[in-house]
Write a structure and sequence with these properties.
Layout: H1 5-39, H2 46-60, E1 65-67, E2 70-72, H3 75-89, H4 102-122, H5 140-151, H6 160-165, H7 172-183, E3 193-198, E4 211-221, E5 227-236, E6 249-257, E7 264-277, E8 282-287, E9 314-318, E10 324-327, H8 331-342, E11 346-348, H9 379-384, H10 389-392, H11 407-412, H12 419-425, H13 437-451, H14 460-465
Parallel strand pairs: 7-11
Antiparallel strand pairs: 1-2, 3-4, 3-9, 4-5, 5-6, 6-7, 7-8, 9-10
Amino acid sequence: MRRSHSGWAGFAAGRRALTAAAIAAALPWLTALALAHRDDPAKWSTAEWTRWRDAEIATILTPTYSLDGERLLLRTDVADRCASAYAFIAPRLADPAFLADKERAAALGNFLKFTEAQHWVALKRPDGTQTHALGMDISDSEYWEFAKPYTTLPALLRSPSFLACMSHRGSYKYAVDMIDARNRGVPEDQRWIVLPFRGQFVASVDRTTFGRLLVVAPNQPMPDGETLDQWVSFAIARPEMDPEPTIRSVSVVAVLRDRAQPGRSQAFFTDYFREYDAASDSIVPMPTFLMHRNPSQNCYDCHKSAVIPIRPKATYRFDSDGSLVEGSRRSDLLDRLDGLIGTYGQSDLGHLSTDAYGPSLGSPSRKPEVARPPFGGSLAKVRENMTCGKCHEAFGKLNYLLGVRSDSDVKSFEAKQGLVQSFIEQGFMPPGNTLTATERHTLWESVSRAYFDPATGTGAFVDWLKGER
């Protein structure tokens, strides 16, 4: 039967009413489906993951520490925010298909490496103490077992008599005499190098002093036929300290050369506190990594090469009474130590991936821009020297944390400036430069801002996090 026009109109109206009712009935389910898709990262596209990543980068790198009007990154905030981001994405990594998508892997790969590396530092016990303060993928106590064969102090340096002499400023000379006596009985290439000095950068782990007695023990034979260099740094009282504080710190960097690959090495780190042991009535070295509240932090934050070149504020000698006094700069000895450092090449840190901390400051991936014209200086000279990465990409990357301005610069460094800034502005780097003081300052500002500009949230470090370099 043929429907009239009005009949068709009524039928169509009924259909529309039915469809509207069906949509209305289904709307909560459709909304829930949309929300489930939005809130289930397993269903996100690469574009959605990229938007999430960019928002997380902006949050992670938001400066929250203030210094005289300057906003700096707060190291602990960065670690905590990385831990939050990594916890969100980590469940997806159990699915091999998640990063099998090449586009997604390229977008998230560097960000994943960085957040995973930083999240270790944020891991804590229920009482709030850190378990991975060293930033390793194993706990601090487990790292001690890993490093112990290489960072255990030589017998003389851990002997009660030596440590007793190192407990007071007036007897440091007797400790050095013991080393001199030891040196007379060993081959020349195994003689220890001794340098008392006043550091200008990082205070001792116990935060008491910038004074150091450095003992370099080269070419120690190992059971497997390898040879080990140990750089042992005893924190000491400076001559002008009055009263003399109780000083406990000893730091060891051990370097094992790779005989199969010349120019490469393995590096191990350990800090000790010299503690009084009532049972033996003597001083004994206690690894800080075994302390419930480990005072040590991530060594790689500063040690971008296994051993940092020694640039003392002053060197010391002993006068006729055996007292520590300021002496002339030992440039010959410092050159010798620099030469030794240069033989280590790129160092494997074992349980820490150095590549997860980003590219080096001054890498040639961006066209260099000078931060501001230096008064009375040469823009061309500054621009020519903005190339730290030419050397440091292959040896000792100047990456996070050293490559950015952070609270660590203020809390750890005497001049409230980071290590890289100090090396540049004091003329130590780049090697052989002829820059003026104004040009050196502008160079630091330029490479720093090109790496990470906290005001804009941009730079080579951010580009790397986004997989764009």
